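Below is a filled-in request sheet from our internal design queue. Each sheet records the structural input a requester submitted and the sequence that came back. We keep these sheets so that new team members can see what a complete request looks like end to end.

REQUESTER: design group, bay 2
PRIORITY: normal
MODE: inverse folding
CHAIN LENGTH: 218
BACKBONE (tokenized):
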């Protein structure tokens, strides 16, 4: 199995089921907690839903403070095209602005937004990331991947359709779908955000473990 080529069909069907379930739940007319509603909105986008929102927030964090004010927070959600009303957005913001200073910590917010994951799932995600992050700088780039994976058996490499670089860039694009500014760099947070949604589509811890181990030859 080449990097990232998990049992794809099975994974796609699980992701599709998660999307449909989220859409049905959003449409059922029942009262929902505002953060849960936003999570469902993200799930209805599939594996890159929470990842896309995190990236939209990052783009607005000009000063690198990892905090957002209400306007930035609102803009991130609107830029993603998520269907959340004004009062929900304000409710979420208030809940996270614990000291009432007008800003929230976006990392804390995203951790709350992600579905909870068991320690064993977090552990296998960490192992996969650490294997890819060859130079240990906390991010994955094409240069890291070249040191970890050989593309020689990749069908598109063998057929001459794609170069080594194109195949590795393509893999990184899994984590950048819908990104306003794809940069070819995947941070640990982005990796976690991506697998949090994959995790939500898989009920069984052992199967999740298998999917990640097979994808990254762990």
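RETURNED SEQUENCE:
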């Amino acid at each position: 199995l080449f990097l990232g080529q998990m049992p794809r069909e099975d994974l796609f069907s699980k992701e599709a089921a998660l999307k449909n379930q989220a859409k049905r739940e959003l449409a059922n007319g029942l009262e929902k907690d505002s953060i849960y509603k936003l999570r469902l909105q993200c799930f209805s986008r599939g594996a890159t839903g929470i990842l896309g929102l995190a990236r939209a927030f990052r783009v607005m964090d000009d000063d690198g403070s990892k905090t957002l004010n209400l306007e930035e927070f609102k803009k991130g959600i609107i830029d993603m095209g998520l269907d959340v009303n004004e009062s929900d957005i304000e409710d979420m913001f208030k809940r996270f602005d614990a000291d009432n200073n007008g800003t929230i910590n976006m990392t804390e917010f995203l951790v709350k937004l992600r579905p909870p994951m068991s320690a064993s799932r977090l552990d296998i995600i960490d192992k996969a990331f650490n294997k890819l992050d060859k130079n240990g700088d906390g991010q994955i780039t094409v240069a890291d991947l070249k040191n970890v994976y050989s593309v020689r058996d990749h069908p598109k490499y063998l057929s001459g359709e794609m170069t080594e670089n194109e195949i590795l860039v393509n893999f990184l694009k899994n984590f950048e779908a819908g990104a306003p500014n794809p940069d070819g760099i995947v941070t640990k947070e982005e990796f976690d955000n991506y697998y949090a949604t994959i995790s939500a589509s898989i009920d069984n811890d052992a199967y999740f473990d298998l999917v990640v181990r097979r994808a990254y030859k762990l």
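SHEET NOTES:
- Confidence is low (pLDDT under 50) at residues 1-7.
- The beta strands are 67-69, 103-105, 139-140, 186-187.
FILED BY: M.R.
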